[in-house]
Amino acid sequence: MHAAVITAYDAPPVHGEHPEPVARGEHEIVADVLAAGLHHLTRAKADGTHYSATGVFPLVPGVDGVVRDSAGRLRYAVLDDTNLGTFAERTVIDVRRSVVLPDDVDPVRIAAAMNPGMSSWVALRRRITFREGQRVLILGATGSAGRMAIQIAKRFGAAQVFAAGRDTTRLRALPGLGADQALTFDEIAAAADVDVVLDFVWGAPAAGAMLPMLTARSDRSAPLTWIQIGSMAGESAPIPSTVLRAARLKIVGSGIGSVSPRDFIAELPELAKAVTEGAIDVQARAVPLARIAQAWSERTGERLVLVP
Q: Percentage of the chain surpassing pLDDT 70?
């Protein structure tokens, strides 16, 4: 079969022949891959910058995808740590880490949406007790995950959603997705009285946003939960000690490890249903797997989806 193969952290993926996969575990099956998203997580696991990277090569990247099983059913599957990912014509999935999809779904749309959508969905459903009527600030709202987070927060009953980002052109489109106010990072104090922050940025921008937000809060004793989800601006954030004393701030992370695999999987059916019904806007573009080398380094507002 054909697959994308990476041989070192600093090597780009190469499309070529690869041995056929073999199912070994009790719950494993070989499935045909229909569509697999090129996510930030996929790149980070492959280049060693994500904490779950194994450093074992050769590696077929791809952390999830839409597949067809031997019975002809469509499934969305999430792969465990493996060197045989979904950037291949066929892969091995654990059926316990998959959900059956309706026959009429768009595999590209599902493959594009589930990973970025899951980040905020799981954070609000499994990492904290989110209540209808609370207010949410999204840092990094112009990316795929941030755009979906706006819609997901509203779906869960957020009274107000503030969307912050650095791309002013993309910011202008966010009220159309449900954002009550779009902000640059310089305007972050306008969101001072939110209850929850979904942070896809981290690094210096997140640290720099904390102090003006917290000092501008009308009631500093009111709880503020800051959920660290992504680190597009840096793995480390220089958080001043003042922010931990000046307000009732709680910082938590949401991701692999802080949320159990069982909790992730439990949320998949409802998220897949929302995507299938069109309740969440998805910007996706299908790319042939043979063009993986070009797609790997492309930076775009769309979620690229590899199609064998």
A: 100
**Amino acid symbol at 228:** Q
pTM above 0.85, yes or no: yes
Nearest to 223 by CA among 129, 125, 124: 129
Could you tell me if 219 and 195 are in contact, meaning their C-beta atoms sit under 8 angstroms apart?
A: no
Residue 225: pLDDT over 80: yes
Given a cut of 90, whether residue 256 has pLDDT beyond it is: no
Angle between the 144-155 and 107-122 helix axes, to the nearest 10 degrees?
70
pLDDT score of 53 more than 80: no
Q: What is the pLDDT of residues 27-46, one digit of tens each?
A: 999 999 999 999 988 999 88
Q: What is the spatial distance between Cα 68 and Cα 2, in angstroms, rounded to a whole number?
A: 17
Query: Are 155 and 274 contacting, i.e. CB atoms less than 8 angstroms apart?
Result: yes
Q: Is there a contact between 153 and 163 (Cβ–Cβ < 8 Å)? A: no
- Residue 186 CB neighbours (<10 A): 11
Q: Which amino acid is at 69?
A: D
Instruction: Give the integer Cα–Cα distance in Å for 121 and 242.
Output: 30
DSSP helix/strand/coil, 5: strand
Cα dist from 124 to 155, 196, 252, whole Å: 11, 9, 12
Question: For residue 302, which phi and psi values (nearest 5 degrees)?
Answer: -85, 155
List the Cα angle 48/51/57 in 5-degree steps: 40
The residue assigned the tokens 């680190």 is 231
Closest of 109, 165, 173 to residue 303, by C-alpha: 109
Of the candidates 282, 288, 276, 278, which has an alpha carbon nearest to the alpha carbon of residue 303?
A: 282
Rounded to 10°, the helix 107-122/261-276 angle is 130
Tell me: pLDDT of 181 over 90.
yes
pLDDT confidence of residue 300: 85
d(CA 191, CA 107): 37
Displacement of CA 166 from its chain's centroid (Å) = 19
